[in-house]
Hints:
Helix content is about 40%, strand content about 15%. The chain has helices at about 5-15, 25-45, 90-95, 100-120, 140-155; strands at about 60, 70-75, 80, 85-90, 130-135, 160, 165.
Amino acid sequence: MRRRRSRAAGMMERYTSDGACRLTLTSMMDILTTLLFFVLKSYISGGEVTVPPPGVTLPRSTVNAAMHTSVVVAIDHEDIIMGGEKVATVREALATDELMIAPLAKKLEEARSQMDEIAQRKGEKREVARLATIQGDAGIEFRVLQKVMYTLDRNGFPDIELAVLKKA
């Protein structure tokens, strides 16, 4: 008479008999389906994704225009940030009567020369469109915004957008 094994013993033998772990077709389909949804969602959403730095609360607006790839300058209550690096403080910018913010101008010059070099390597003959986006906290002083916009314009970034959150 043949002895019956318990179901648990059969499963243990099946998964541990040769020491190799096998991935079932169902698990693979789950992974592929998840990846497919992620790729489709990323493709369909389109536009530029912007994540303001911590401490910056973007103002709300009813604008429907999509964002474009650009140089991003973030302004919170304490710092002026470009490319994830602190460029200057708001206090330094407000301390002078000058409209130009020198440390920001230096950083913009570096960005502009890098953009020109990339365009030259690509073989582009036309002038590279230089667009800048300001992610300004809703509570910043207008004088700071004015100085940042002036600095952007005078350093080769005349097209300026203000990042806002869409009203629901």
